Predict the 3D structure of the following.
Amino acid sequence: MKKKSNRKKIIFSFVILTLIAVIFFSYFFKEDVVEYNFSSVERVDLVQEISATGRIKAVDEINLAFEKSGKIETVSVKIGDKVKAGQVLVDLESDDILAEIVQARAGVSSAEAKLNQYKAVLEKEENELEILQIGTRDEEVLVYESKVKNAEAVYDASVQGVIDNIGDAYTKSDDAIRNKIDQIFNNPRSTNPQLIFTVNDSQLETDVEWSRSLIEQQLVLWLASLNSLDSDLLQDEITKVENQLSEIKSFLGSLALAVNNLSANSEFSQTVIDGYKTSIYSARTNVNTAVTNLSLAKEKLNTAKTSLLIAENELALKEADNTPEKIYSQRAIIKQAEANIVSQEAEIDLKKSMVQSSLVKLSKNTLVSPIDGTIIKQEADIGAIVSSGQVIISVISEDNLEIESNIVEADIAYLKVGNKAKLTLDAYGEDVIFDAEVVRIDPSAQLIEGVANYKIALKLTEADKRVKSGMTADIDIVTLELEDVLVVPYRSIIFKNGSGKFVRILNEFLQAEEVEVEIGVIGNGSLVEIIKGVNEGDKIVTSIKSNK
């Protein structure tokens, strides 16, 4: 039994070895079978593209600020508001400038009235010359004597008018300073008046307190001089009063600035502060009125004085013989009248320029939108103090958008202004495609993570309200388009250093033969243009698979 069992084991082992031998020889000595994957050479329209990402940006993004500091009076917009070019956005307080404009326009009207008077005088003098050349009658002398008396009466009235206005200017100044302003000072009429609050600007505080001391001295001297006004020295007195009013205006302006910077606290409520501001405004208005009234009275005095002088000269001419000297003298008067007209016209131009200057100052107290667009920043609050150059409003144009993108150095050589592009936006998905065009390529590169990149800008071919500033875009830029060229897959090209470029073509026996080719443009879909080396329909090997 034992011998029979060993025999079975030997037979089983022999069978196993035989099977292994068969498998070994079948695998290692069977015939090789090679399979080729291929693609046919065909003619197509080849497109070369550069792909990039970018962001939508408004071309017009404008930051707005005032040229000078001031207190905000009105705010007309908020973030997200649509605005039109020229629309008012923010205003600063402008009471002082408005008062200047009123005064300057009054000066223009006064100067124009005086010009008309000068023209009337010229006309009279020309008539007198004509009469002189004909001859003068006795009754005409009586007429001119009457003119002199009338002119004297007008002159005396204008002198009294100036005196009255000087007194009124003192009254208004005294009321403005001692009644309306002194509540803001301790010991206001002493040589060392002190503001009842502290000003952040120490120099401004010192200037205000020093000015109050000087004005007190001026008011005392001014009152003393009112009872001794001399009509012969009235012009000097007018100049002195004008200077005093100018100093008071300057003082009130500095005081207004100090109070405007005052904030409500435990010592001063907002109601008290507003009361101070109202008093200052009233004081400034009264002083400005005094300045205007004195200016008008001064103009009337000068006009009356000129009219009296002319009337006296006319009477003298009438009383004298009609000699050639008289005629010569009358012609000289006419020339003077003509010179007065020219001078007055120049005065009118000057006063109009003052009006225009004040209007320009007023316009700088208003921020307007320079474009149609949307407010994206608004930091203006009514009552807040803004500094010169502080950006408080930003506006962008939604109709003038660009797509900005960075192109790596390797691709920039293919790109030029005018290249067409397709883009999609993350907000709308890949199915919504927008047409665009390259409009700008920066000449200098910037390093991004160590790689040179060139910034480019594209514009949409047609404006589209769906496109918003800040959106992200995927961009395909067409750099070259070729029609009807031979192409093969790029993976079928064999590159041999120093020997050129080759492809494998399957011959009629399905065997691969290498042929040298000249390639051109590499386009979309990994297709490459073949300039020379293959024909349309050739089967080009793309990969090889060996089976045993």
